[in-house]
Each structure stands twice: as structure tokens, then as C-alpha cells.
Amino acid sequence: MTQKANILLVDDRDENLIALEAALTSLDQNLVRANSGEEALKHLLGTDFAVILLDVVMPGMDGFETAAHIKQREKTKDVPIIFLTAQEIDRHQVFRGYASRAVDFLLKPFDPWVLRSKVEVFVELHQLKAQMREQARALQRDLGQETGEPGKILAEQLALRSRQVQSDLAELREHIVTNYQDVDQPLVNGVRRMDRSVSQLSTLVDTLHGPE
């Protein structure tokens, strides 16, 4: 039986949290509330989340600052973030959000069906990655039993190549953020898709490689 995923809802207004819960209840996952960026970070200390729905405009620590803290932590840096905002999104906000490695923006009032569809994708991806980790552990055991040292060397080489790809992608992401006025949206979307694919690949490779 597939384990339920945790979804973090972050908004300083209770009525907005209630609206989010109403839209997502049918997914039958664990919905966790936070009324501030600080509270969200506390939840992330001990709980694994499939996706975070994060309000942009909040008193104290706003959504962008909260996302920056989330992405700085090794444990949470790969958790997808969907920003929620009642304001029209300008080009600067889009690239500021991209710098925080958010995966999407949704304007309030949001369409419940659209919100639910987007979140469902990340829940399925989270559950798929969990399955991949289990398969990778089984493959790691098989490599150790059947091939010994050559299997370990192969895993190390794959891990090295994966880190190189992630490093190159980080440089490209930084270039886009620094030169956002001269970068077109199709390139941004392409890098985002690549970012997600590399994240999935690194999950498999890192688990196969095992702890260093």
C-alpha cells in the first residue's frame, strides 16, 4: 500500500488555508498547515513533504525568503514549491521565484481543479521517487552480490557524472537569474524541465552509490 504524502500549506490567513484544504481534500493525502514562514521551516525539520504551497506576501518572512531557507537546507532543497500570490506576477517576481527554485506560480483566487491537478503531479512524483529508492537499494544489493568491486566502481562513476551534470545545471540557472532581462521564457521553462529530470536521476544514482 502506497504511503500517504505530506503536503505543506503556508499562508498567514486562516481562510486561505481552509480554501486550500477544501481544494485538496479529495487527494486523500496528509495536509499540514503553517501560518508563517518560520512555522513552515519548523515543520520541515522533522517531516518529509512531497510539495509546498507557499504564499508570497506574508508579514515577517515572506514567501521568497522562506523558499530561500528551504533550498539552503540539504534535507529540503529538492522539495517542489508552488508560490501563491494575489498580485499580478511581474517579470522580476518570476525570476526571483526561479532563483528560489520554485516550480510554479498560482494567482489567487485559484481554480481548485488546476491547483489539485498540479499538486497531484508532485504527489505522484514523490511516491515514484520513493519506489525508485527502494528499487535502487535492491539493485545495489544485487550489484554487490553479483559483481563485487566492478559494480561499486560503476556506481561511483555514475555518481560522479551525476554531480557534474548538477554543477553545470546550477551554473546555467545562475546565468538565467543574473541576466533575466535578456533571457526568454522558453529557455527558462526548458531549464526547469531539465532541473526536474536531473533531480530524479540523482535520486536513483545517489541511492545506488550509497553513503560515502
TrEMBL record:
Domain Response regulatory: 6-123
Coiled-coil segments: 122-175
InterPro entries: Bact_response_regulator (IPR050595), CheY-like_superfamily (IPR011006), Sig_transdc_resp-reg_receiver (IPR001789)
Modified residues (4-aspartylphosphate): D55
Key words, A-Z: Coiled coil, Phosphoprotein
Keyword Cell membrane: no
Protein name: Response regulator
